[in-house]
Amino acid sequence: MTRLISARALLHASAAFVAFTAVPVFAQAAPAEAPAAQQQDGADGDIVVTARRREETLLNVPIAATAFSAARLEQTGVVDLTDLQNVTPNTTLKNARGTNSTLAAFIRGVGQQDPVPGFEAGIGIYLDDVYLNRPQAAVLDVYEVERIEVLRGPQGTLYGRNTIGGAVKYVTKHLADGPEASFKGSYGSFNQADGIVSLSTPIGSLFKVGVSGARLTRGGFGRNTNLNSDNYNKDVWAGRGTIEFASPDDRMTLRLTGDYTEDKSNARNGSRLITSLLSNTPVQANAFDTRAGLNNPKQNIQAGGLSLVATAQLSDAITFKSISAFRKDRSFTPIDFDALPATDVDVPAVYRNEQTSQEFQFAYKSDKLNGLVGFYYLGAKASTGFDVLLSTTFANFNAYTKGDVRTETSSIFADFTYDFIPQLSLSLGGRYTWDERRSTIFKVSYLGLTPEFGGTPVPFGAPSTDFTGTANFKRFTPRASLSFKPTPDHLLYASYSEGFKGGGFDPRGSGTSSPIANPAAGRTYQDIYNYLLFKPEVVKSYEIGYKGSLFDKRLNIALDGFYSDYSDVQVPGSVGCVIGGVQSFCGITTNAAKATIKGVELETTGVLARGFAGPGSNVSLSGTLGYISAKYKTFIGPTGVDVANVRVFQNTPDWTLSSTLAGTIPVGAGKVNANTTLSYRSLTHQFETASPFLDQPGYALWDANLTYSFGRGGRYSIGVHAKNITNKIYKTAGYQYIRTDLAGNPINALNVPVPNGPYVATLGKEGIATAFYGNPRQIFGTITAKF
Hints:
The protein contains 5 helices and 43 strands. The protein is mainly beta. The chain has a 22-stranded antiparallel barrel. The chain starts with a helix and ends with a strand.
């Protein structure tokens, strides 16, 4: 049945693309006026973006990019960054298992799922040009936003660090020229109740000040039947304050922004997929229910930061820009792997992150040459503490793990475009990066909780890891792009770019597991250093593309094809291990792989009709298509065996499709906008090894939105939004500690396949196959007002 539904969804989405061929026929019948997409949301290529650190229309940027304007985000009921994955090709943006706030991001097969320090994200998340160094608190709620840009492919010549797969830019609104107040309220399914208030005003002729506050709440999609509490609820406070300064001639501007978020939602606990092996507890009927028993610490995420952006126009040709920022976050979270009342694999955890960054840019502008040179610095501290409570023959056994990572990175970069003639341009750029990573890793067994979680532990044996090490990495990453514009409305481009992500040390690794190079000397510091160290990874990407606006901007197309060589792929993981004769929990990370990634992406919008019901009326059909073939050429596992033939790319479905039908008609003193989207994602693997428990077969989601805006400039609006209308239940993440063969098939203690059990636990005694799910059907209404 699932395959039938998925096939139908694929056919529907494919039919939508075929329908685009009919767009010019319909378009000929309507009188010319402003593009419908621009009226609706500015997404037709005329939207202004800063993908290359200067203002350009999307049509003129030789980069695979998707832009979402504020109007489009509002009309489609987008709540946070994860909503964007359904309408962006070859992109995955999702909550990372146990919280509402930690982000797992993948673009074109590159990303990072493990949120512990030491592993860096492959996708750069930027809040007003400030790079967010850690994934905690990176699931940004959408409020007071000007636009969001998703850039696909390596972006290292222009953006911070770790953008080897792409970048997501969250750009907040600038303050209005006059006094302004706005309000947005939402209420809907599961007692969703959101309120956002913004106030701003000029002070004199030089300054503006503004504040925004958001209260975002929702009941749980399910229940923790053991603790009698909501599961998958939301309880968030957020605020943002801004001061802007502009000189009388606008040649100098300053923008000081501060933001703070506190997420007090309950821990998101997974649902078991198999009957427990020891207590024989059955699977629950509701996928959003759990029996998790760990409630220490109480989940709480606090995050905030300050940024100062200063711009000075030094001459008609040269502009200086400085971006200074400080950010800090702290996450307490109880992680109950086994999702049972018993203490089997329970992990009280805390994450602490702090970063300081400074960027300087000198931008040059002339008739033929445009570009910038810059310097970037990031100093960051990231630490975790895990009490790993395991069921063993010893009561209150705790395989404690602590990791502390200090990062210092500096880079110089430049990116320039030269127009030989108005139709032909060459862009060349490069970045040289110096990374220093200093890690402290401490693993020891205790009886009892550590003081951070309210205990007084008793040491149980010597530390298995007590390591401090420093590693330095450096690399030059170039970019080149050739663009040809046969007419102002058509762009052809070809590009080459490289991406680089620094290495580090496995923060959960066990020093006592390291191989001994010289048996006569015993295990040395260098043995442990080499075992815990993993090298940088590199992507070399080739891309060709076309962007065009046809039939008087009635049909807009962005098409690209790409091929990437991906080397020294960092593969982090965790396994059950034995330390001192006692079962424990260890990290194991390797530069296991070389891979090739190739694919195609298509984004298109066609106007089916204009002016049929008065000025401003229109009907449009838009769609996205992403196809990716990601294959490992080699994958050397921990045992030294090449297992590439049984390894897959995680969080990278072969197909991502969407189709949106939208229409706007004037009604009374306002206008009604209606849109509906069908999106499809094919089979998605959660890890590099296929899992019959956690992998999600292809599925489709159907959303619909209706908004009525009225008043001068649409200052008032009322909306109704429906998400996942068919109430599709689909997995987004999970944990698995079940014995399998190299291909991921469950086996028993005799290495005999057991597809239906009984299974063998590799960590704990109950057997862990626990899943997390995407949001069920939600219907909510919104009211907005601007004064």
